[in-house]
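re the bet — no i am not wrong, look at it urself. input seq straight from the record:
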Amino acid sequence: MKKISIYVAAAIVALGVSSTSCDSKQNVNLKLAVDSASYAIGVNTGAGYKENLKTLPGGKANVDALIAGFITALKGDSAALKMTPEAAQAYLQTYFTEAQARDVVKIKDEGETFLAENKTKSGVLTTESGLQYQVLTEGKGAKPTAADKVKVHYTGTLLDGTKFDSSVDRGEPAEFGVGQVIKGWTEGLQIMPVGSKYIFWIPAELAYGEQGAGADIKPGSTLKFEVELLDIVK
């Protein structure tokens, strides 16, 4: 429910400021210390949540409806409310859940379209699981197994080119167990001889699925990794 609270707070504060129902340029009486404190809370909260409002799903918010609901609830006029606070919370839960589900479908569809086109390109190979890869440099060393630990350099990006992680940028190779990472990595690493450099395109079901990861990897995302297998760690 934290996400919903952020959206609602953002909408109330940021849209309330710009609403035609409220003149933000009107003179505010800050005669008492509590008046100034109240105003400071408004400024601080509004500034903090202004950007969050841009992520509100479903289109442009209805400012008049938002302000009407806020003011009516704030005044405690329950008889004038078109829905109870409990019904409002339940509605928002459903609204944001459905919005997220639509986003997942959209992102997955974009990934599937990309992979369908990508597999027809020269040099791109596709495994039975749907993992796609391209050999940039073919090494001559041993291939790791799922039980091995490896040392790699890698850069991960979204399909739009957004970089979300890179050991190369950090200037230090990563070490981890082949069987302790996402399925696409586990499969892909076992294809690579030591000394190789491959590009992997990993569909969502072999990556982070409908959970996503962090701020950049949205649920349903297809991921691209450039991976250099440096060594099998003994």
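see?? The two ends are 46 Å apart (CA to CA). told u. also The CA atoms of residues 200 and 210 lie 20 Å apart. so pay up
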